[in-house]
Amino acid sequence: MLAGSLAAGALALSGAPAAATPAPLTPPRVPPGSGPLPRVAAPAVPPDRRLFAPAEQRYASYLVTLAAMVNDIDDSDTALRGFQAGGWWRTPSEPFNARTCEHVATFAWFLTAERPWNPYRGDPALAARLDAAVDYYLRLQHEDGSWPEYAPDEHSRAATAFALGYLSKTLERLRGADLLPQRCAAISAALRRATTWFLDPDNDGVWTGGIVEFANQPAAGLAGAAKALALDPDPVLDALLRDRVRHFAASAQSPAGFLYEPRGMDIAYNLNVTLTEIHELHTELGAPVLLPLVRRLAEWLRYTVVPEPDGAGLVSFASGAARTPMYYLDAVTVDRQQRDLGSVFCSEVPDLAVFYPAREDREAGREAWAASPEPVPALAPGDTNPRIPANIPYGEGYPRRRRRDVALRRLPAVRHERFSELRVDPQDQHYLFVRRPGYYLQAFFGVRPNAVVRAGLGLLWHPRAGTFVHGGQSSNTECWATVLPNGGTDGASDLTPRYHQGPVSDGRVVEPGRVGRVHDDLGISWTTTGGNVTGSVLLQDTGLVREVTTTMDGTEQVPLVLRHDDVVTWVGGRQAAVGELTSARTTGVTVSRGGVTLTIDWGTEADARLTPTTRTYFADASRRLSVLRVPLGRAAEVGYTFG
Protein backbone atom coordinates (compact mmCIF):
# COMPACT_ATOMS: atom_id res chain seq x y z
CA MET A 1 0.00 0.00 0.00
CA LEU A 2 2.82 2.39 0.91
CA ALA A 3 4.62 1.79 -2.37
CA GLY A 4 1.37 2.27 -4.26
CA SER A 5 0.75 5.53 -2.46
CA LEU A 6 4.15 6.85 -3.44
CA ALA A 7 3.65 5.84 -7.05
CA ALA A 8 0.19 7.37 -7.15
CA GLY A 9 1.52 10.59 -5.66
CA ALA A 10 4.24 10.73 -8.28
CA LEU A 11 1.79 10.21 -11.15
CA ALA A 12 -0.62 12.75 -9.79
CA LEU A 13 1.95 15.47 -9.22
CA SER A 14 4.42 15.07 -12.05
CA GLY A 15 2.40 16.75 -14.75
CA ALA A 16 3.69 20.28 -14.13
CA PRO A 17 6.34 21.39 -16.61
CA ALA A 18 9.78 22.52 -15.50
CA ALA A 19 9.74 25.84 -13.65
CA ALA A 20 10.26 28.98 -15.65
CA THR A 21 13.12 31.37 -15.00
CA PRO A 22 12.08 33.62 -12.10
CA ALA A 23 11.80 37.37 -12.04
CA PRO A 24 12.72 39.92 -9.43
CA LEU A 25 10.04 40.60 -6.80
CA THR A 26 7.74 37.60 -7.02
CA PRO A 27 7.54 34.73 -9.47
CA PRO A 28 6.41 36.07 -12.85
CA ARG A 29 3.42 33.89 -13.45
CA VAL A 30 0.86 31.72 -11.77
CA PRO A 31 2.31 28.21 -11.70
CA PRO A 32 0.48 25.31 -13.33
CA GLY A 33 -2.40 23.89 -11.34
CA SER A 34 -5.02 25.77 -9.42
CA GLY A 35 -7.31 25.50 -6.47
CA PRO A 36 -6.51 24.89 -2.83
CA LEU A 37 -3.94 22.24 -1.93
CA PRO A 38 -4.97 19.46 0.44
CA ARG A 39 -4.05 20.17 4.05
CA VAL A 40 -1.59 17.95 5.86
CA ALA A 41 -2.98 16.29 8.96
CA ALA A 42 -1.19 16.48 12.30
CA PRO A 43 -0.09 13.09 13.70
CA ALA A 44 -3.21 11.19 14.82
CA VAL A 45 -1.54 10.27 18.11
CA PRO A 46 1.39 11.90 19.92
CA PRO A 47 4.68 10.34 18.84
CA ASP A 48 6.05 7.60 21.06
CA ARG A 49 9.44 8.85 22.23
CA ARG A 50 10.71 5.28 22.67
CA LEU A 51 10.46 4.60 18.92
CA PHE A 52 13.12 7.14 17.98
CA ALA A 53 16.71 6.04 17.54
CA PRO A 54 18.84 8.13 19.93
CA ALA A 55 20.51 10.20 17.21
CA GLU A 56 17.14 10.81 15.54
CA GLN A 57 15.33 12.20 18.56
CA ARG A 58 16.03 15.62 17.06
CA TYR A 59 13.48 14.87 14.35
CA ALA A 60 10.67 14.64 16.90
CA SER A 61 10.08 18.36 17.36
CA TYR A 62 10.00 18.80 13.58
CA LEU A 63 7.54 15.91 13.30
CA VAL A 64 4.98 17.57 15.57
CA THR A 65 5.50 20.96 13.88
CA LEU A 66 5.46 19.72 10.29
CA ALA A 67 1.73 20.03 9.59
CA ALA A 68 1.61 23.64 10.79
CA MET A 69 4.64 24.54 8.66
CA VAL A 70 3.45 22.80 5.52
CA ASN A 71 -0.10 24.09 5.79
CA ASP A 72 1.26 27.65 5.79
CA ILE A 73 2.55 27.14 2.24
CA ASP A 74 0.60 29.52 0.02
CA ASP A 75 -1.92 27.68 -2.19
CA SER A 76 -3.58 30.68 -3.80
CA ASP A 77 -4.03 30.90 -7.56
CA THR A 78 -1.47 33.67 -7.71
CA ALA A 79 2.23 34.06 -8.34
CA LEU A 80 2.78 33.40 -4.61
CA ARG A 81 1.58 29.81 -4.86
CA GLY A 82 4.19 27.72 -3.05
CA PHE A 83 5.61 30.54 -0.88
CA GLN A 84 6.45 29.37 2.65
CA ALA A 85 4.42 31.82 4.72
CA GLY A 86 4.19 31.93 8.50
CA GLY A 87 7.68 33.18 9.30
CA TRP A 88 8.93 29.68 10.09
CA TRP A 89 12.49 30.26 8.95
CA ARG A 90 14.66 33.31 8.18
CA THR A 91 13.90 36.98 8.01
CA PRO A 92 12.75 38.97 6.24
CA SER A 93 9.80 36.63 5.75
CA GLU A 94 9.13 38.17 2.36
CA PRO A 95 8.21 36.53 -0.97
CA PHE A 96 11.56 37.50 -2.53
CA ASN A 97 13.68 35.87 0.18
CA ALA A 98 14.76 32.48 -1.15
CA ARG A 99 16.03 31.46 2.26
CA THR A 100 12.45 31.07 3.52
CA CYS A 101 12.21 28.10 1.13
CA GLU A 102 14.98 26.00 2.67
CA HIS A 103 12.65 23.64 4.53
CA VAL A 104 11.93 21.84 1.26
CA ALA A 105 14.70 19.46 2.34
CA THR A 106 12.92 18.87 5.67
CA PHE A 107 9.63 18.17 3.92
CA ALA A 108 11.32 15.84 1.41
CA TRP A 109 12.91 13.87 4.24
CA PHE A 110 9.59 13.27 6.01
CA LEU A 111 7.88 12.45 2.70
CA THR A 112 10.40 9.70 1.88
CA ALA A 113 11.84 8.39 5.18
CA GLU A 114 10.62 5.04 6.41
CA ARG A 115 10.45 5.15 10.19
CA PRO A 116 7.94 3.51 12.56
CA TRP A 117 7.12 6.95 13.99
CA ASN A 118 6.82 8.82 10.65
CA PRO A 119 3.21 8.95 9.38
CA TYR A 120 4.15 11.22 6.47
CA ARG A 121 5.98 8.78 4.23
CA GLY A 122 4.15 8.86 0.92
CA ASP A 123 1.56 11.34 2.17
CA PRO A 124 -0.11 12.79 -0.97
CA ALA A 125 -0.99 16.09 0.73
CA LEU A 126 2.60 16.60 1.85
CA ALA A 127 3.83 15.69 -1.63
CA ALA A 128 1.50 18.24 -3.22
CA ARG A 129 2.60 21.03 -0.91
CA LEU A 130 6.27 20.12 -1.28
CA ASP A 131 5.84 20.19 -5.05
CA ALA A 132 4.39 23.70 -4.87
CA ALA A 133 7.13 24.84 -2.49
CA VAL A 134 9.91 23.53 -4.74
CA ASP A 135 8.29 25.12 -7.76
CA TYR A 136 8.22 28.47 -5.98
CA TYR A 137 11.85 28.08 -4.85
CA LEU A 138 12.96 27.42 -8.43
CA ARG A 139 10.96 30.32 -9.82
CA LEU A 140 12.85 32.67 -7.53
CA GLN A 141 16.14 31.73 -9.18
CA HIS A 142 17.74 34.42 -11.35
CA GLU A 143 18.76 33.64 -14.91
CA ASP A 144 22.44 33.51 -13.92
CA GLY A 145 21.73 30.74 -11.39
CA SER A 146 21.77 32.76 -8.18
CA TRP A 147 18.97 33.44 -5.68
CA PRO A 148 17.97 36.62 -3.78
CA GLU A 149 17.75 37.10 -0.03
CA TYR A 150 17.42 40.69 1.21
CA ALA A 151 16.22 42.35 -2.00
CA PRO A 152 14.42 41.07 -5.10
CA ASP A 153 17.28 41.85 -7.48
CA GLU A 154 20.06 40.67 -5.13
CA HIS A 155 22.37 37.91 -6.32
CA SER A 156 23.07 36.47 -2.89
CA ARG A 157 26.07 34.31 -2.12
CA ALA A 158 24.40 33.00 1.06
CA ALA A 159 20.99 32.25 -0.47
CA THR A 160 22.64 30.46 -3.41
CA ALA A 161 25.12 28.56 -1.26
CA PHE A 162 22.41 27.16 0.99
CA ALA A 163 20.06 26.52 -1.93
CA LEU A 164 22.72 24.25 -3.42
CA GLY A 165 22.70 22.22 -0.23
CA TYR A 166 18.99 22.06 0.50
CA LEU A 167 17.86 21.50 -3.08
CA SER A 168 20.45 18.80 -3.71
CA LYS A 169 19.28 17.01 -0.55
CA THR A 170 15.70 17.37 -1.76
CA LEU A 171 16.63 15.97 -5.16
CA GLU A 172 18.42 13.01 -3.59
CA ARG A 173 15.39 12.11 -1.46
CA LEU A 174 12.86 12.46 -4.28
CA ARG A 175 14.94 10.48 -6.75
CA GLY A 176 15.51 7.75 -4.21
CA ALA A 177 11.75 7.41 -3.74
CA ASP A 178 11.00 7.77 -7.47
CA LEU A 179 8.78 10.76 -6.75
CA LEU A 180 7.99 13.86 -8.85
CA PRO A 181 10.31 13.01 -11.77
CA GLN A 182 9.60 16.17 -13.78
CA ARG A 183 10.11 18.34 -10.71
CA CYS A 184 13.35 16.47 -10.13
CA ALA A 185 14.44 17.38 -13.65
CA ALA A 186 13.72 21.04 -12.89
CA ILE A 187 15.73 20.86 -9.65
CA SER A 188 18.61 19.24 -11.52
CA ALA A 189 18.64 22.02 -14.11
CA ALA A 190 18.47 24.70 -11.41
CA LEU A 191 21.34 23.12 -9.51
CA ARG A 192 23.48 23.06 -12.64
CA ARG A 193 22.91 26.79 -13.19
CA ALA A 194 23.59 27.56 -9.54
CA THR A 195 26.74 25.43 -9.47
CA THR A 196 28.05 27.14 -12.60
CA TRP A 197 27.44 30.58 -11.06
CA PHE A 198 28.86 29.68 -7.66
CA LEU A 199 32.04 27.96 -8.82
CA ASP A 200 33.02 30.62 -11.36
CA PRO A 201 36.43 31.92 -10.16
CA ASP A 202 35.65 35.32 -11.69
CA ASN A 203 32.45 35.68 -9.67
CA ASP A 204 33.54 38.34 -7.18
CA GLY A 205 30.17 38.08 -5.46
CA VAL A 206 31.38 34.76 -4.07
CA TRP A 207 35.18 34.82 -4.26
CA THR A 208 35.91 38.20 -2.69
CA GLY A 209 39.44 39.10 -3.70
CA GLY A 210 42.40 37.94 -1.64
CA ILE A 211 40.23 36.99 1.34
CA VAL A 212 37.23 34.67 1.20
CA GLU A 213 34.74 36.55 3.37
CA PHE A 214 31.89 34.99 5.38
CA ALA A 215 33.68 31.63 5.16
CA ASN A 216 30.60 29.67 6.20
CA GLN A 217 28.80 30.64 2.99
CA PRO A 218 31.44 29.48 0.48
CA ALA A 219 31.86 26.33 2.58
CA ALA A 220 28.12 25.67 2.31
CA GLY A 221 28.17 26.32 -1.42
CA LEU A 222 31.08 23.95 -1.95
CA ALA A 223 29.35 21.21 0.06
CA GLY A 224 26.09 21.73 -1.84
CA ALA A 225 27.87 21.77 -5.19
CA ALA A 226 29.68 18.56 -4.28
CA LYS A 227 26.38 16.83 -3.55
CA ALA A 228 24.77 18.22 -6.69
CA LEU A 229 27.67 16.93 -8.80
CA ALA A 230 27.53 13.55 -7.09
CA LEU A 231 23.90 13.34 -8.26
CA ASP A 232 24.58 14.73 -11.76
CA PRO A 233 28.29 14.43 -12.61
CA ASP A 234 29.94 17.01 -14.83
CA PRO A 235 33.72 16.85 -15.40
CA VAL A 236 34.08 20.58 -16.11
CA LEU A 237 32.17 21.63 -13.01
CA ASP A 238 33.94 19.00 -10.93
CA ALA A 239 37.31 20.50 -11.92
CA LEU A 240 36.03 23.93 -10.91
CA LEU A 241 34.82 22.53 -7.60
CA ARG A 242 38.24 21.13 -6.76
CA ASP A 243 39.90 24.39 -7.79
CA ARG A 244 37.57 26.37 -5.50
CA VAL A 245 38.17 23.96 -2.60
CA ARG A 246 41.91 24.64 -2.94
CA HIS A 247 41.22 28.37 -3.11
CA PHE A 248 39.04 28.17 0.00
CA ALA A 249 41.81 26.39 1.89
CA ALA A 250 44.29 29.07 0.89
CA SER A 251 42.14 32.19 1.34
CA ALA A 252 39.33 31.59 3.85
CA GLN A 253 41.60 31.10 6.86
CA SER A 254 43.54 33.87 8.55
CA PRO A 255 47.21 33.19 9.35
CA ALA A 256 46.03 33.67 12.94
CA GLY A 257 43.97 30.48 12.56
CA PHE A 258 40.32 31.59 12.39
CA LEU A 259 38.04 31.42 9.35
CA TYR A 260 36.95 34.88 8.22
CA GLU A 261 33.49 36.10 9.34
CA PRO A 262 33.26 38.48 7.53
CA ARG A 263 36.89 39.73 7.69
CA GLY A 264 37.60 38.98 11.32
CA MET A 265 37.32 36.16 13.81
CA ASP A 266 34.01 34.67 14.93
CA ILE A 267 33.95 31.66 17.22
CA ALA A 268 30.23 30.91 16.90
CA TYR A 269 30.06 30.79 13.10
CA ASN A 270 33.29 28.79 12.83
CA LEU A 271 31.92 26.15 15.19
CA ASN A 272 28.20 26.22 14.46
CA VAL A 273 28.16 26.46 10.68
CA THR A 274 31.49 26.25 8.88
CA LEU A 275 32.76 23.08 10.53
CA THR A 276 29.48 21.32 9.78
CA GLU A 277 29.66 22.32 6.11
CA ILE A 278 33.27 21.15 5.90
CA HIS A 279 32.22 17.72 7.15
CA GLU A 280 29.47 17.59 4.52
CA LEU A 281 32.04 18.51 1.86
CA HIS A 282 34.36 15.75 3.05
CA THR A 283 31.49 13.27 2.95
CA GLU A 284 30.45 14.20 -0.58
CA LEU A 285 34.04 14.23 -1.89
CA GLY A 286 34.94 11.05 -0.04
CA ALA A 287 38.16 12.60 1.28
CA PRO A 288 39.08 14.93 4.20
CA VAL A 289 40.62 17.54 1.92
CA LEU A 290 40.29 20.40 4.42
CA LEU A 291 41.53 18.51 7.48
CA PRO A 292 44.73 20.63 7.78
CA LEU A 293 42.54 23.73 7.86
CA VAL A 294 40.39 22.18 10.61
CA ARG A 295 43.49 21.37 12.66
CA ARG A 296 44.74 24.96 12.42
CA LEU A 297 41.28 26.23 13.35
CA ALA A 298 41.17 23.97 16.43
CA GLU A 299 44.61 25.17 17.49
CA TRP A 300 43.36 28.79 17.30
CA LEU A 301 40.06 28.09 19.07
CA ARG A 302 41.92 26.66 22.07
CA TYR A 303 43.19 30.16 22.92
CA THR A 304 39.76 31.79 22.68
CA VAL A 305 38.05 29.91 25.52
CA VAL A 306 38.56 29.31 29.23
CA PRO A 307 36.84 26.68 31.41
CA GLU A 308 34.98 27.51 34.58
CA PRO A 309 36.54 25.47 37.41
CA ASP A 310 33.16 24.21 38.63
CA GLY A 311 32.58 22.45 35.29
CA ALA A 312 29.74 24.71 34.12
CA GLY A 313 31.33 25.20 30.71
CA LEU A 314 33.48 27.57 28.69
CA VAL A 315 33.61 31.37 28.52
CA SER A 316 34.84 32.75 25.20
CA PHE A 317 36.50 35.82 23.70
CA ALA A 318 33.23 37.53 22.85
CA SER A 319 34.42 41.14 22.55
CA GLY A 320 36.79 40.26 19.71
CA ALA A 321 34.12 38.52 17.61
CA ALA A 322 33.26 40.22 14.32
CA ARG A 323 29.84 38.67 13.79
CA THR A 324 27.94 36.60 16.37
CA PRO A 325 29.43 36.51 19.87
CA MET A 326 29.42 33.24 21.78
CA TYR A 327 29.62 34.44 25.38
CA TYR A 328 29.66 30.97 26.86
CA LEU A 329 29.18 27.31 26.00
CA ASP A 330 27.54 24.95 28.47
CA ALA A 331 29.42 21.74 29.23
CA VAL A 332 26.21 19.81 28.56
CA THR A 333 24.13 21.34 25.78
CA VAL A 334 20.65 20.64 24.49
CA ASP A 335 20.46 17.97 21.80
CA ARG A 336 18.73 20.04 19.13
CA GLN A 337 21.55 22.26 17.96
CA GLN A 338 23.51 22.70 14.78
CA ARG A 339 27.02 22.70 16.23
CA ASP A 340 27.14 19.02 17.11
CA LEU A 341 27.78 17.74 13.59
CA GLY A 342 31.30 19.11 13.98
CA SER A 343 31.86 16.51 16.69
CA VAL A 344 32.76 14.04 13.94
CA PHE A 345 36.18 15.74 13.80
CA CYS A 346 37.02 14.93 17.43
CA SER A 347 38.64 11.59 16.59
CA GLU A 348 41.10 13.20 14.16
CA VAL A 349 41.34 16.61 15.84
CA PRO A 350 41.16 15.80 19.58
CA ASP A 351 41.48 19.44 20.67
CA LEU A 352 37.96 20.09 19.37
CA ALA A 353 36.50 17.80 22.04
CA VAL A 354 36.08 20.67 24.52
CA PHE A 355 33.41 22.23 22.28
CA TYR A 356 31.02 19.26 22.44
CA PRO A 357 29.30 17.43 25.28
CA ALA A 358 30.79 14.17 26.46
CA ARG A 359 29.20 11.12 24.87
CA GLU A 360 28.11 9.84 28.28
CA ASP A 361 26.26 13.10 28.96
CA ARG A 362 24.56 13.09 25.57
CA GLU A 363 23.51 9.45 26.01
CA ALA A 364 22.12 10.17 29.48
CA GLY A 365 20.14 13.10 28.12
CA ARG A 366 18.70 10.99 25.34
CA GLU A 367 17.73 8.20 27.70
CA ALA A 368 15.91 10.72 29.87
CA TRP A 369 14.20 12.19 26.81
CA ALA A 370 12.97 8.77 25.68
CA ALA A 371 11.62 8.00 29.15
CA SER A 372 9.82 11.30 29.59
CA PRO A 373 5.99 11.08 29.66
CA GLU A 374 5.66 14.66 28.42
CA PRO A 375 4.37 15.32 24.88
CA VAL A 376 7.04 16.29 22.37
CA PRO A 377 6.91 20.11 22.24
CA ALA A 378 6.30 21.82 18.91
CA LEU A 379 8.70 24.42 17.55
CA ALA A 380 7.79 28.08 17.30
CA PRO A 381 8.06 30.06 14.06
CA GLY A 382 11.62 31.28 13.65
CA ASP A 383 12.99 28.37 15.69
CA THR A 384 12.88 25.70 12.98
CA ASN A 385 16.48 25.64 11.73
CA PRO A 386 16.48 23.26 8.72
CA ARG A 387 20.19 22.62 9.20
CA ILE A 388 19.52 20.52 12.29
CA PRO A 389 17.48 17.75 10.60
CA ALA A 390 19.70 18.04 7.53
CA ASN A 391 22.77 17.31 9.69
CA ILE A 392 21.44 14.12 11.27
CA PRO A 393 22.22 11.72 8.39
CA TYR A 394 25.86 12.84 8.41
CA GLY A 395 26.47 11.24 11.81
CA GLU A 396 28.06 12.42 15.01
CA GLY A 397 31.18 11.74 17.07
CA TYR A 398 30.81 12.97 20.62
CA PRO A 399 34.03 12.43 22.59
CA ARG A 400 34.15 10.15 25.59
CA ARG A 401 34.32 12.07 28.86
CA ARG A 402 37.90 10.98 29.40
CA ARG A 403 38.95 12.37 26.02
CA ARG A 404 37.05 15.60 26.62
CA ASP A 405 38.75 16.01 30.00
CA VAL A 406 42.13 15.54 28.35
CA ALA A 407 41.26 18.22 25.81
CA LEU A 408 40.22 20.58 28.64
CA ARG A 409 43.56 20.04 30.34
CA ARG A 410 45.30 20.82 27.04
CA LEU A 411 43.73 24.28 26.71
CA PRO A 412 46.65 26.73 26.80
CA ALA A 413 45.18 28.69 29.72
CA VAL A 414 44.96 25.46 31.75
CA ARG A 415 48.08 23.64 30.60
CA HIS A 416 50.57 26.48 31.01
CA GLU A 417 51.29 29.11 33.66
CA ARG A 418 53.27 31.50 31.51
CA PHE A 419 53.18 32.52 27.87
CA SER A 420 52.57 35.48 25.58
CA GLU A 421 50.79 34.61 22.33
CA LEU A 422 50.13 37.29 19.71
CA ARG A 423 48.26 36.27 16.58
CA VAL A 424 48.37 38.96 13.87
CA ASP A 425 46.23 38.96 10.74
CA PRO A 426 47.64 40.80 7.67
CA GLN A 427 44.77 43.29 7.98
CA ASP A 428 46.53 44.61 11.12
CA GLN A 429 44.32 42.73 13.56
CA HIS A 430 46.19 41.84 16.77
CA TYR A 431 44.75 39.08 18.97
CA LEU A 432 46.71 38.87 22.23
CA PHE A 433 46.59 35.99 24.72
CA VAL A 434 48.71 36.28 27.86
CA ARG A 435 49.06 33.71 30.64
CA ARG A 436 50.79 34.55 33.88
CA PRO A 437 50.72 32.51 37.09
CA GLY A 438 47.86 34.60 38.49
CA TYR A 439 45.57 34.92 35.46
CA TYR A 440 44.84 34.63 31.72
CA LEU A 441 44.01 37.68 29.61
CA GLN A 442 42.54 38.06 26.11
CA ALA A 443 42.72 41.34 24.18
CA PHE A 444 42.33 42.84 20.71
CA PHE A 445 44.35 45.72 19.25
CA GLY A 446 44.93 47.19 15.82
CA VAL A 447 42.35 47.75 13.12
CA ARG A 448 38.90 46.41 13.98
CA PRO A 449 37.45 44.29 11.15
CA ASN A 450 34.10 46.02 11.64
CA ALA A 451 32.12 48.18 14.04
CA VAL A 452 30.85 45.37 16.30
CA VAL A 453 34.31 44.39 17.60
CA ARG A 454 35.33 46.04 20.85
CA ALA A 455 39.07 46.69 21.06
CA GLY A 456 41.26 46.62 24.13
CA LEU A 457 41.19 44.16 27.00
CA GLY A 458 38.46 41.55 26.72
CA LEU A 459 38.64 38.81 29.36
CA LEU A 460 40.36 38.19 32.70
CA TRP A 461 40.32 34.64 34.12
CA HIS A 462 41.82 32.96 37.17
CA PRO A 463 42.78 29.27 37.00
CA ARG A 464 41.15 28.37 40.34
CA ALA A 465 38.24 30.82 40.43
CA GLY A 466 37.25 31.28 36.78
CA THR A 467 36.20 34.37 34.85
CA PHE A 468 36.06 37.71 36.65
CA VAL A 469 35.99 40.25 33.79
CA HIS A 470 34.30 39.60 30.44
CA GLY A 471 33.77 42.30 27.84
CA GLY A 472 30.82 42.33 25.48
CA GLN A 473 30.66 42.77 21.72
CA SER A 474 28.82 45.53 19.84
CA SER A 475 28.12 47.48 23.03
CA ASN A 476 29.67 50.55 24.63
CA THR A 477 28.00 49.74 27.94
CA GLU A 478 29.34 46.19 28.40
CA CYS A 479 32.93 46.42 27.15
CA TRP A 480 36.06 46.74 29.29
CA ALA A 481 37.00 50.28 28.36
CA THR A 482 37.28 53.98 29.10
CA VAL A 483 33.94 55.73 28.65
CA LEU A 484 33.77 59.37 27.55
CA PRO A 485 31.01 61.87 28.45
CA ASN A 486 29.19 61.26 25.14
CA GLY A 487 28.98 57.53 25.84
CA GLY A 488 31.70 56.60 23.37
CA THR A 489 34.55 54.31 24.39
CA ASP A 490 38.09 53.63 23.30
CA GLY A 491 36.86 50.07 22.70
CA ALA A 492 34.82 51.36 19.75
CA SER A 493 37.96 52.70 18.05
CA ASP A 494 40.93 51.19 16.31
CA LEU A 495 43.75 51.06 18.87
CA THR A 496 47.26 51.37 17.48
CA PRO A 497 49.42 49.22 19.79
CA ARG A 498 53.08 49.16 20.80
CA TYR A 499 54.52 46.28 22.79
CA HIS A 500 57.22 46.63 25.44
CA GLN A 501 59.33 44.31 27.53
CA GLY A 502 58.51 45.83 30.88
CA PRO A 503 56.73 49.12 31.60
CA VAL A 504 55.71 51.33 28.71
CA SER A 505 57.64 54.24 30.24
CA ASP A 506 61.06 52.61 30.02
CA GLY A 507 60.64 49.09 28.63
CA ARG A 508 62.29 48.02 25.41
CA VAL A 509 59.94 48.17 22.38
CA VAL A 510 59.18 44.69 21.07
CA GLU A 511 58.14 43.98 17.49
CA PRO A 512 54.87 42.03 17.17
CA GLY A 513 56.68 38.96 15.87
CA ARG A 514 58.77 38.82 19.07
CA VAL A 515 56.02 39.31 21.65
CA GLY A 516 55.94 35.55 22.18
CA ARG A 517 59.46 35.77 23.63
CA VAL A 518 58.37 38.05 26.47
CA HIS A 519 57.77 35.83 29.49
CA ASP A 520 58.03 38.38 32.29
CA ASP A 521 56.33 41.79 32.45
CA LEU A 522 54.69 42.80 29.17
CA GLY A 523 53.65 46.38 28.53
CA ILE A 524 51.23 47.51 25.83
CA SER A 525 50.38 51.08 24.89
CA TRP A 526 47.67 52.29 22.52
CA THR A 527 45.99 55.38 21.15
CA THR A 528 42.53 55.82 19.67
CA THR A 529 42.15 56.95 16.09
CA GLY A 530 41.14 60.47 17.15
CA GLY A 531 43.71 60.69 19.93
CA ASN A 532 41.11 61.35 22.64
CA VAL A 533 42.22 58.35 24.72
CA THR A 534 45.75 57.15 25.30
CA GLY A 535 46.14 54.01 27.33
CA SER A 536 48.60 51.43 28.50
CA VAL A 537 48.67 48.25 30.54
CA LEU A 538 51.46 46.43 32.33
CA LEU A 539 50.88 42.70 32.62
CA GLN A 540 52.67 41.27 35.67
CA ASP A 541 52.62 37.89 37.37
CA THR A 542 49.78 38.53 39.83
CA GLY A 543 47.83 41.21 38.03
CA LEU A 544 47.84 44.19 35.73
CA VAL A 545 47.90 47.96 35.86
CA ARG A 546 45.92 50.12 33.42
CA GLU A 547 46.88 53.75 32.87
CA VAL A 548 44.65 56.06 30.85
CA THR A 549 44.74 59.73 29.89
CA THR A 550 41.87 61.41 28.07
CA THR A 551 41.10 64.80 26.53
CA MET A 552 37.88 64.94 28.57
CA ASP A 553 36.67 63.32 31.78
CA GLY A 554 36.65 59.55 31.53
CA THR A 555 35.10 56.61 33.39
CA GLU A 556 36.74 53.24 33.99
CA GLN A 557 34.18 50.59 32.94
CA VAL A 558 34.67 46.99 34.09
CA PRO A 559 32.19 44.22 33.09
CA LEU A 560 32.37 41.84 36.07
CA VAL A 561 31.05 38.27 35.93
CA LEU A 562 29.68 37.58 39.41
CA ARG A 563 28.39 34.39 41.01
CA HIS A 564 25.56 34.64 43.51
CA ASP A 565 27.93 33.54 46.29
CA ASP A 566 30.73 35.99 45.44
CA VAL A 567 31.61 38.44 48.19
CA VAL A 568 31.91 41.97 46.80
CA THR A 569 33.29 44.54 49.23
CA TRP A 570 33.96 48.23 48.75
CA VAL A 571 37.30 49.35 50.17
CA GLY A 572 36.36 50.70 53.59
CA GLY A 573 34.46 47.60 54.60
CA ARG A 574 30.92 47.93 53.24
CA GLN A 575 29.71 44.84 51.37
CA ALA A 576 27.89 45.23 48.06
CA ALA A 577 24.85 43.07 47.33
CA VAL A 578 25.47 40.89 44.28
CA GLY A 579 22.78 41.35 41.63
CA GLU A 580 21.60 44.72 42.97
CA LEU A 581 22.46 48.28 42.04
CA THR A 582 24.97 49.53 44.59
CA SER A 583 27.33 52.48 44.92
CA ALA A 584 30.01 53.87 47.19
CA ARG A 585 32.54 56.66 47.41
CA THR A 586 35.73 54.68 47.76
CA THR A 587 39.18 53.89 46.37
CA GLY A 588 38.53 50.32 45.28
CA VAL A 589 36.56 47.11 45.45
CA THR A 590 37.32 43.43 46.04
CA VAL A 591 35.61 40.34 44.63
CA SER A 592 36.23 37.14 46.62
CA ARG A 593 35.41 33.69 45.27
CA GLY A 594 36.54 30.29 46.54
CA GLY A 595 39.60 31.57 48.37
CA VAL A 596 40.68 33.87 45.51
CA THR A 597 40.29 37.65 45.66
CA LEU A 598 40.46 40.14 42.81
CA THR A 599 41.24 43.65 44.05
CA ILE A 600 40.48 46.58 41.75
CA ASP A 601 42.23 49.68 43.09
CA TRP A 602 41.90 53.14 41.52
CA GLY A 603 43.84 54.92 44.26
CA THR A 604 41.74 58.03 44.80
CA GLU A 605 38.24 58.39 46.17
CA ALA A 606 35.55 58.34 43.50
CA ASP A 607 31.82 57.67 43.28
CA ALA A 608 31.73 54.09 42.03
CA ARG A 609 28.59 52.25 40.90
CA LEU A 610 28.00 48.53 40.33
CA THR A 611 25.03 47.89 38.02
CA PRO A 612 23.60 44.42 37.28
CA THR A 613 22.65 43.60 33.69
CA THR A 614 20.25 41.08 32.19
CA ARG A 615 23.05 38.91 30.78
CA THR A 616 23.50 35.62 32.63
CA TYR A 617 25.85 32.73 31.98
CA PHE A 618 25.14 29.02 31.47
CA ALA A 619 21.90 27.09 31.56
CA ASP A 620 21.59 27.51 35.31
CA ALA A 621 22.17 31.31 35.12
CA SER A 622 24.74 30.81 37.89
CA ARG A 623 26.59 33.97 36.89
CA ARG A 624 25.43 37.47 36.00
CA LEU A 625 27.22 40.35 34.37
CA SER A 626 27.42 43.47 36.55
CA VAL A 627 29.20 46.57 35.28
CA LEU A 628 31.48 48.58 37.54
CA ARG A 629 31.84 52.24 36.55
CA VAL A 630 34.27 54.62 38.23
CA PRO A 631 34.59 58.28 37.09
CA LEU A 632 38.30 59.14 37.22
CA GLY A 633 38.72 62.44 35.39
CA ARG A 634 41.34 62.90 32.69
CA ALA A 635 44.05 60.65 34.08
CA ALA A 636 43.76 57.39 35.93
CA GLU A 637 45.73 54.38 37.10
CA VAL A 638 43.75 51.25 37.96
CA GLY A 639 45.32 48.11 39.34
CA TYR A 640 43.84 44.61 39.09
CA THR A 641 45.54 42.21 41.49
CA PHE A 642 44.79 38.58 42.38
CA GLY A 643 45.52 37.28 45.83
UniProtKB/TrEMBL annotation:
Signal peptide range in chain numbering: 1-19
Record key words, sorted: Signal
Pro residues biased stretches: 24-35
Chain intervals for the UniProt region annotation (Disordered): 22-41, 370-395
Identification of the protein by name: Silent information regulator protein Sir2
Originating organism: Desertihabitans brevis
